[in-house]
Amino acid sequence: MAPVPISSIKIGHIDDVQELRRARPTTIPDRFVRDMAERPSTATPSMHIPVIDLSKLIEGDRDQSHTELSKLAVSCEEWGFFQVVNHGIDKEMLRSIEKVAMEFFMLPLEEKQKYPMAPGTVQGYGQAFVFSENQKLDWCNMLALGVEPLFIRNPKLWPTKPANFSETLEKYSASIRMLCQILLSFIAMSLHMNNDAFNDMFGDAVQAVRMNYYPPCSRPDLVLGLSPHSDGSALTVLQQAEGSSVGLQILKDDNWEPVQPVPNALVINIGDTLEVLTNGKYKSVEHRAVTHKDQDRLSIVTFYAPSYEIELGPLPELINDNRPCMYRKYNHGEYSKHYVTNKLQGKRTLEFAKIQTKLSC
């Protein structure tokens, strides 16, 4: 199949990167081409972010558990990211969710468009966080779904193809939910708090999943797979499909650093909500995704956050003279609405909660 000029691609397909890739356009559409300051630089050696062995925290002897807990504290405070191994989620389950996700993305466009992501929402198939015709688009197709509690689900947006999609996602999400609760227990302990502190506080926690498919791009130096952002969640769990290209980059010491995946590990990052609750001790970190010229990439991301009804603010035990109160109290549902109705711009959405003047909480 010969390359075609972009003008000949049907208008309804211009923001679907799989269709663009299939058409092999001679140039990258302007809508995807980033300004010079935003373009990915030449790749550097992949960074090995801290690796936490969950089995040592749960089953290790006292010394092993203490060492791993100290490592977890450093990971959250200095990195905002870590990879977790021996997390207890069966490898077959990881491969199963990857399989159904990839099968969905490989369906004909007409089938995927039965589950459209409406403008201003973050459920369904399409491009999220797009609010203007002039906004640059990410080189990525997404399927985003609310999972828990049940009232946040939109059943019409859960694909019926492949046939086992919903069943697989249900089982996978239940395992990830349990993992988040376990991790939050140890994160609380790393702050010298009661291990149930966060889980008790969160109530009926909100859980959502987003599946991202990044096709190869002929000019990966011009585009971004996913714009720089921090997450509005408390915890985010990232699964990078086996065999995918390296795509995750984190902002570390003002440099964009590629993250080298550890086989069968899950990447965990601190979200804005935990930054607020810890009064900035544990920070959400800006991250982005880049593309590859020849390889595609699939990732499955779970966002875990408090109930929408919960009022959040810095915990009193983490406010002192050395770390004065940095954030105001707010309703988590209000912040969630603020987050999903603004485009991804680094950590700008967290300005919603920041105290601009030196006031007490």
List the topology elements.
Elements: H1 17-23, E1 51-53, H2 54-59, H3 62-79, E2 81-85, H4 91-105, H5 109-112, E3 124-126, E4 141-148, H6 165-190, H7 197-202, E5 206-214, E6 226-229, E7 235-240, E8 248-252, E9 255-258, E10 266-270, H8 272-277, E11 287-289, E12 297-305, E13 311-312, E14 330-331, H9 332-340
Helix pairs in contact: 3-6, 4-6
State the main characteristics.
361 residues, Jelly Rolls, eight-stranded mixed β-sheet, 14 strands, four-stranded antiparallel β-sheet, alpha+beta
Describe this structure in words.
Keywords: Iron, Metal-binding, Oxidoreductase. This is Fe2OG dioxygenase domain-containing protein. Residues 1-13 have low confidence and may be disordered. The protein has 361 residues and is of the alpha+beta class. It is globular and about 60 Å long. 27% of the residues lie in helices and 19% in strands. The protein starts with 16 loop residues before the first helix and ends in a 21-residue tail after the last helix. Strands 1-2-10-7-12-5-4-3 form an 8-stranded mixed β-sheet. The protein has a 4-stranded antiparallel β-sheet with strand order 6-11-8-9, with no helix packed on it. A two-stranded antiparallel ribbon has the order 13-14.
Compute the number of strand runs. Answer: 14
Give the low-confidence spans: 1-13
Number of domains: 1
CATH structural architecture = Sandwich
Helical content stands at: 25-40%
Query: Which fold does the CATH topology refer to?
Result: Jelly Rolls
The CATH class designation is Mainly Beta
Q: Which superfamily, in CATH terms, is the homologous superfamily?
A: B-lactam Antibiotic, Isopenicillin N Synthase, Chain
Q: How do the SSEs run, as a string of H and E?
A: HEHHEHHEEHHEEEEEEHEEEEH
| General form | globular
**Proportion of residues in β-strands:** 15-25%
How many separate helices?
A: 9
> Would you tell me the overall average pLDDT?
86
Distance between the termini: 63 Å
Instruction: Give me the Rg, rounded.
Output: 20 Å
Largest sheet: 8 strands, mixed
Structural class comes to alpha+beta
Lateral arrangement of strands in the main beta sheet: 1-2-10-7-12-5-4-3
